[in-house]
Write a structure and sequence with these properties.
With 401 residues, the chain is mainly α. The chain folds into 2 domains: 63 residues, no CATH class; 300 residues, ABC transporter involved in vitamin B12 uptake, BtuC, CATH 1.10.3470. Helices cover 69% and strands 2% of the residues. The protein has 17 helices and 2 strands. The longest helix is centred in the first third of the chain and has 28 residues. It is globular, with a radius of gyration of 24 Å. The protein starts with a helix and ends in a 24-residue tail after the last helix. About 2% of the residues have low confidence.
Length: 401
């Protein structure tokens, strides 16, 4: 009964707050006001039942409590420790990705291409935020560096996509190192503010330096990638960029996975957990941080070049802080440090808003509500990071786990 009263109060309060948006509609053509009282009724009933479910699950969560590490089922660990399941899963996903463009239309291919791009961007930022624990709010700056590198070199010198691809990655790496040096002594909120300022500086320079970047007008007619000079139609180019992103995604997943389990990967994890203890154990803080910024920026530069080639037009409005926030949300939503988590997070962040367009003006409300529910009941992310465990075994079996 107590839950019902509290839920009823929440529903009434929510109806009061949303009254102007839900009920009142002004018809400017006929100069009349349409009162949609039925919308308020639906809103109140919906919020009442959602509040009831919310309180039920919160009580259930508190009642069950936190499970011990031995009792908690980690799906990622189960898959990673069973090579047969892992191999079957990889083959199935690759098969679906290869068949996908031939059973759907160009719109779906474009959406999936963008999702794959954000997977790579998320994995790049995951190196900086998830592994090294360095909060970077200006990651979109490296994305912009790669895009403008290809756009400017293609516009002024006619260089092709394949020639500029490594150049764009190298330029982003250099900018990543330039950002890394000033922030070596910063951490936490101060690091976030400096990286946010760096991203805004890059955007403002591109927006106001008309002689260099064409200003707000941007750069148009950027060449799409070709194979041996063969001219492709728009549909063929869309499918080709899609498969190009599939290759980039597979390579990035393999590279980041190997990097995560390498010596530098363990140094990043140590840096994330305790920077002072990490330095006391002999891990070079300067080199470790710079490598994190440089490698994360490299993937952003690569995707910037692909983005410019895909859209054939770029301007500074494509590289706002919102893009950095989306990429960071991909990492946090999926699970910081978790490669499968970043992949799932990118698919949700990119595909869900597109497929919720059927809800029209309410789609972002539904999407935001889903994010809030996830953060309350799954704060560690959809898929928590799986950390390998090592044990020593002697020849006679006296030592073990």
């Amino acid at each position: 009964m107590e839950y019902m009263i509290k839920s009823l109060k929440v529903a009434v309060w929510f109806m009061f707050l949303t009254f102007p948006i839900v009920v009142i509609k002004v018809n400017t053509i006929e100069n009349i006001v349409i009162w949609r009282w039925h919308n308020m009724f639906y809103m109140g009933v919906g919020i009442f039942f959602v509040s009831m479910l919310w309180r039920y699950f919160l009580e259930r969560k508190d009642r069950v409590g936190k499970k011990s590490a031995a009792e908690r089922i980690n799906i990622t660990q189960t898959i990673m420790e069973n090579p047969k399941i892992l191999r079957t899963l990889i083959i199935s996903v690759l098969t679906i990705l290869c068949i996908f463009p031939f059973v759907t239309d160009s719109y779906q291919i474009n959406i999936m291409t963008v999702a794959l791009m954000y997977i790579v961007l998320g994995l790049g930022l995951n190196i900086v935020v998830g592994l090294a624990g360095l909060l970077d709010l200006g990651f979109v700056a490296f994305y912009a560096v790669g895009a403008y590198t290809y756009a400017l070199l293609n516009y002024h010198f006619g260089l092709s996509f394949w020639v500029v691809l490594p150049i764009g990655a190298l330029m982003a790496t250099i900018f990543g190192i330039l950002l890394g040096f000033p922030v070596l002594r910063l951490r936490g909120d101060y690091l976030a503010i400096v990286t946010l300022g760096f991203g805004e500086i890059i955007r403002l320079v591109l927006e106001n330096w008309n002689e260099f970047s064409m200003g707000p007008s941007g750069i148009a007619n950027i060449d799409r990638p070709t194979i041996y000079g063969f001219d492709m139609t728009l549909t063929q180019a869309t499918i080709f960029i899609y498969f190009l992103m599939v290759v980039f995604t597979v390579f990035t997943v393999f590279f980041v996975n190997r990097l995560q389990n390498s010596r530098i990967g363990r140094a990043w994890l140590a840096l994330r957990e305790d920077e002072i203890a990490c330095q006391a154990m002999g891990v070079g803080r300067t080199r470790t941080k710079l490598m994190a910024f440089a490698l994360g920026a490299t993937w952003a530069g690569l995707m910037g070049v692909v983005f410019a080639a895909k859209t054939t037009f770029i301007n500074p409005a494509s590289f706002t802080f919102l893009e950095s926030a989306i990429i960071l949300s991909v990492v946090v939503l999926g699970g910081m440090g978790s490669i499968p988590g970043v992949i799932i997070g990118a698919l949700i962040m990119i595909l869900l808003p597109e497929y919720l367009r059927a809800f029209s003006e309410y789609r972002m409300l539904v999407f935001g509500g889903a994010m809030v529910v996830m953060m309350v009941f799954r704060p560690q992310g959809l898929i928590s990071n799986y950390r390998r465990k090592y044990s020593f075994h002697s020849a006679d079996g006296r030592f073990g786990k």
